[in-house]
Amino acid sequence: MKKLLALLLCLAMVFTFAACGGSSEGGEEGGGDAAAVSFDDIDDNFESEDGTYQIAMVTDVGQLKDGSFNQFTWNGVKMYAYENGKSYKYYQPANGSAATDDDRIKAMTDACDAGAEVIVTPGFLQATALEAVAPKYPEVQFIFIDGWDMGIDNVLGVSYQEEQAGYLAGYAAVMEGYTKLGFSGGGGGSNPACIRYGYGYAQGANAAAEAKGTDVTMRYSWEYGSSFSASDDLQAMLAGWFNAGTEVIFMCGGTMFNSGAAAAEAADAAIIGVDVDQSNQSDTVITSACKGLAQSVQISLGNFYNKGLQKGALVLGAADDAVGLPVDTWSLTNWTVDDYNALFEQIKSGEITVDNNSDMADPSQAGLEHITFEN
User: Domains of the chain by range and CATH?
Assistant: First the structure.
């Protein structure tokens, strides 16, 4: 039961896991009774009396309320701020999904100039701007969500063992009875997190096929995913997959989800969500490969306010109950929660090790004996 509660961190639209706020190691008291407050109860637009804001977030591509990465990173920011009496503000770089490094640099600089003590920057695209801005503001803490150790004294990279979440999703899909799988990834095959998700997914599917004494097929593509955005071309490709027999596709890349959901709805097929529980966004979602974005933000903010500037890397995975599948909302009927829990514990304990090769953008080269990769 303890583990099941921890996995609620992944739930995308169930905004009442405020009990996790107690683990944020907060500094000042503030806000009120966190247990009675949901993310939606906290205003996105805090009004500072003096025009300065202590905690800032610079959004990744897409909108703040994207139902995915931006939204649940922001949930962690504002929950921590609410609980600890901090002022907060989000900054969206100009030009939306077409934002440039210069746009991100300006947004980070604006946040620093508006009094930010700490800036949360989700998404790997923030790296160049961080390199430009962080050294100029050495007293400001930068938290690089889905990032890495940049070797900068005031930048903390927070990353996840996405390969573990992907493994669980691939294993679940095959144990549920799917034998014709797909993976549609964002970042054009150059995003380390998406690569780890996809490679883990293939490993999990391969392991489940071996356990069942069967083989599966998989279509695997980074096409039309470079911007992580939905598109007519992506939807048409996925519709073609479904028409050719694919039964379930892991949609791994921001609002690319919308193209997958539309194609699956038209074909009466299924998809797997990513990063957060996306089951509320489409009836075609059978489960989601999740990571505890909001909790990890709260932990990182608490570490800064309690211990000072943080640098290096913080890597979270099953051992931290920071990745997993949302068992309370999945629509699986042939694979049980007990079976899932047993597999999760094997990963958590290290009995099962999932390869985290961030360069394995083409798992057909990985020697997975129970998967045939199709074009």
Answer: 2-161+292-320 (3.40.50.2300), 163-291+330-374 (3.40.50.2300)
